[in-house]
Amino acid sequence: MAITLADVEAARRTIAGRVLRTPMLPAPKLSALTGASVQVKYENLQVTNSFKERGALNKLASLSAVERERGVIAMSAGNHAQAVAYHAARLGIPATIVMPVTTPFVKVHATKACGAEVVLHGETIADAQLRAETLEHERGLTFVHPYDDAKVIAGQGTIALEMLEDAPDLDLIVIPIGGGGLIAGNALAARAVKPSIEIVGAEAALYPSFWNTLRGEARPLGGATLAEGIAVKNVGALTLPIVRDLVAEIVLVDEQSLERAVNAYLTLQKTMAEGAGAAGLAAMLAKPERFRGRNVGLVLCGGNIDPRILASIMVRELERDERMVSVRLTIPDRPGVLGQIATRLGELSANILEVDHHRLFLDVPAKGAKVDVTVETRDRAHVQEILAALEAEGFQPQRIEAAVAME
Amino acid sequence: MAITLADVEAARRTIAGRVLRTPMLPAPKLSALTGASVQVKYENLQVTNSFKERGALNKLASLSAVERERGVIAMSAGNHAQAVAYHAARLGIPATIVMPVTTPFVKVHATKACGAEVVLHGETIADAQLRAETLEHERGLTFVHPYDDAKVIAGQGTIALEMLEDAPDLDLIVIPIGGGGLIAGNALAARAVKPSIEIVGAEAALYPSFWNTLRGEARPLGGATLAEGIAVKNVGALTLPIVRDLVAEIVLVDEQSLERAVNAYLTLQKTMAEGAGAAGLAAMLAKPERFRGRNVGLVLCGGNIDPRILASIMVRELERDERMVSVRLTIPDRPGVLGQIATRLGELSANILEVDHHRLFLDVPAKGAKVDVTVETRDRAHVQEILAALEAEGFQPQRIEAAVAME
Question: Are A147 and A178 in contact (CB under 8 A)?
Fold first, then answer.
């Protein structure tokens, strides 16, 4: 019953030529950022932009002729849905995907575009799950579980085989952990091929389900996380014992680390990671001493992030880096003052991005006004220089958060 | 004097192991978008995130011991600067880079971080160029030209050798064209290896220097382009004859095609392209019938784009796709109306992103107000449904462009 290296090797033969053998490349700027020697496995380059295709295809390919004819069902609002839909269509297997009614339209559309029937049902994942189970029995469909299935786990484990072929010197692989399918498959494959390798799990701090189970803690689970792909409240029955045996440590990643990691992938590595996809890098940023000086492999496991959220992350990071600053100024409400401010900012080489002028605030004197100005800056020293100059002109500058349109 | 395949093969041996052999991967979603079979060469994954390292390293490695000791000089505000600085530092060659004083701080910083001395001089590229020539002679430095140099051209050509090894079935390669170094090197290498292959150049419509020269036209050159990396007003003396002989066609790409291409790389292919880096894809979008049904190779030649600009492109594309809409409503200025609007939008599943309330516009009745509301939408039909509902409530909705913070 136990899943072995032989199962992962068989999965690799099954998916060969039908799932991309993704690149594994050195990431020198992420190495400089973390102090480790980092290599990245680009699973976001799969057709549906996540690793989920490996497990889904391995499962689908294992079905009997009768099961294929009847079709499959899955419950997912995310990457698993697209992976099952895409590979079922290629194999000519009818696929039904149940999603909560709250699922963003883009994800529903992407799954339908792959050829699946989408059933929108229930406000929550749990409601949708119940509906999927009902349909499974009513229609005689085969359920494709996102993680707690031996074929799925073995399929995901093919990543580690490719990573160690391309980079045999790895000391450590950091793997995002939700239901545990990805980490279980890869832990068993990697440790079988290279027993000395360490496997570290990166779990969202808001959803510490493996952390709680393994440590006997009861930290709360829930909340809005950037890493919705690993926001799982349960551990898998099949994945838990593998994780317990083979994973050295679980690092909890908070929202800020996730956001920094998504941004680092984008600006330093020029690639798009969703929150869950960046969780491994987030773990390195959250706990750098754990990884420093070592050969670390990261699985960039998914790239499906809402463009609005990504745009917001990029702008927030510019503010954090003080490459953009917003200040509120108190000014006398007479002609020419805005021109004076703009001129002064120009002299300071601070490019103005946005101006917002208020006169109705209660804390403004009747003959005064407030102006919010957002400017592009070079760095912290430049920000300080600008604030000092505005202070000297008598505008009482106060730093505020920029009015970013798409938060 | 002519550059040959042997020069490119020699360059390949020279740069082997010191410049990344980048992935060449099928891009099924870009194929679906364009109707061609598209494969992408990811030059944006180089350490300094552009192909420029190939030519720069090939040139640097060709210098004599005396030349290396004296050092090199280059003039560039962009990718060439970082490429020269990075590889000069690795070879222990002192590098001086002249940049116009208007160069964004981030690029100056990135070049300094590679270990080069940066000289900021002149308002324009031409001024900086003069300064670089003066320093070349005063200090006895070797000038590393960004494109008009046989070693540089041969170095860039190594890309085509790798592409055809990985994808021998290519019918056509689309290559961005600025000064012509990238396209010249790759045209001569690709046509030597596979004489039947077509090479198409993608030139910015605002900077049609090769187009003008080859066709005897005199279209104007200039203006702010997203593809600043190929905004070159001259053609190279070495590159021109190669382009004339070996390039089948030049496609001019306008700003909207460039913007769509950058966005398509990001949202469909999960990778970051700068404007010039996306020019090949932009050519496919601008002239789809030219490429339909063929095996097309794209060189994603650079990924250095300002995060602010990228964020703005993403948001604008959402508006174009009608996944986001802004409307200005005229409302009676009394309590409760905003609540009424918000409730109605909620019923229509239109998620509110931003609200801006004006009462001081002259075209508003004294007892009225205007509200700008930006909402997240599903598609065109959803937008129409929302507009009709707001009309029915008497708010006279007018569509406007969203107030995007970072344009």
Answer: yes
Let me know: does B213 contact B233? Beta carbons within 8 Å: no
A314 touches chain B (CB under 8 A): yes
Distances (CA, A) of A400 to A40, A326, A371, B296, B301: 37, 5, 11, 49, 38
Write down the ipTM of this complex.
0.87
User: Which residues, given as ranges, of chain A have pLDDT below 50?
Assistant: 403-407
Residue A331: strand, helix, or coil: strand
φ/ψ region of A115 (left if φ > 0, alpha if ψ in -120 to 50, else beta) reads left
Place of tokens 């789809």: B288
Contacts of B272 in chain A (CB under 8 A): 266, 270-272
CA distance A86 to A49: 11
Q: Compute the nearest-CA separation of A353 from chain B (Å).
A: 6
- In the structure encoding, which two tokens stand for residue B205, read together? 């419509």
Is residue B170 a contact partner of residue B297, using CB atoms and an 8 Å limit? yes
- Mean pLDDT for all residues in chain B: 92
The residue of chain A with its CA nearest to that of B271 is A271
Residue B272: pLDDT band with limits 50, 70, 90: very high
Tokens 């929302």 appear where?
B386
Q: Which of B108-122, B187-201, B352-366 has the lowest mean pLDDT?
A: B352-366
The answer to whether residue A39 neighbours chain B at the CB level (below 8 Å) is no
Tell me the CA distances in angstroms from A157 to A55, A188, A232, one per residue in order.
Answer: 8, 7, 20
- Per-residue burial over A60-72, b if 16 or more Cβ lie within 10 Å, else e, is bbbbeeeebebbb
Distance CA B75, CA B116 (A): 12
Q: What CA–CA distance (Å, rounded) separates B309 from B313?
A: 6
